[in-house]
Amino acid sequence: MSLRRELIFARPAFATHFMILAALLLLAHTLSARAQQPPQQASTPQFKIGGAVSAPLTITAADLKAMPRKTVKVLNAHNQKTEVYEGVSLAALLQKAGVPQGEALRGALMATYVLVEASDGYRVAFSLAELDSGIIDSDILVADTLDGAPLGQDEGPFKLVAPHEKRPARWVRMVRSITVVKPN
Ligand SMILES: Nc1nc2c(c(=O)[nH]1)N[C@H]1C(S)=C(S)[C@@H](COP(=O)(O)O)O[C@H]1N2
Ligand SMILES: [Mo]
Fold it and tell me: Which CATH number fits the domain that encloses residue 62?
């Protein structure tokens, strides 16, 4: 260490001032970085469709209302109630994101699957083939209403419903994202 540096840092007052200055600079930097961030999006209800798709999408509640609507009447095996869900078919949403359908669904796409994730971390998979109308008539839909009313906080705003399954285990409450996954 040079004599000059030793002299400077040997003086406690200088070291203290130096540290206060450094702390202030850090604080100023943090505040300005925060100010530059875009404001938090007001939580408009939405979910994402992404992964191996040609046109990743963010679907809002309004987008869903504007798409062709489908209604299913189904017995919920859990509560033994007949429920009417309304929403948009999952196949139609995937088509909007550019997922190949019909004759174009071949080769590696036959092993490609759709991961539906909820805000509580629950995840469910469907293969693309079981959502393709050229292979099977799927009635799986992303619903936004139950018995005519918007879905509540613990279920919605979006709920994936697979009406023909015996247990509602692949029904996904609070859908947050739909990701197309092509395995290696
Ligand atoms: N988001 C989310 N959806 C979910 C689950 C979950 O834990 N989280 N559990 C699943 C299972 S295993 C079942 S049987 C049904 C239960 O539905 P219910 O809780 O609405 O009766 O929801 C399915 N959907
Ligand atoms: Mo379950």
Answer: 3.90.420.10
Neighbours of ion ligand 2 (CB under 5 A): 169
Count of structural domains, the chain? 2
Question: Same domain, yes or no, for 153 and 168?
Answer: yes
Atom number in ligand 1 closest to CA 120: 1
Domain of residue 5 covers 1-40
Pairing of strands 46-51, 57-60: antiparallel
Contacts of residue 156, Cβ cutoff 8 Å, sequence gap at least 6:
45, 144, 150, 173, 174
Amino acid at 164: H
**For the CA of 76, the nearest ligand:** 1
Residue 78: the pLDDT is 85
Query: How many Å apart are CA 103 and CA 111, to the nearest integer?
Result: 15
Same domain? 8 vs 76? no
**Same domain for 84 and 149:** yes
Q: What is the tens place of the pLDDT at every residue in 82-133?
A: 999 999 999 999 999 999 999 999 999 999 999 999 999 999 999 999 999 9
- Residue 69 and residue 34 share a domain: no
> pTM for the complete prediction?
0.79
Q: Tens digits of per-residue pLDDT, 155-180?
A: 999 999 999 998 899 999 999 999 99
Residue 165 Cβ contacting ligand 1 at under 6 Å: no
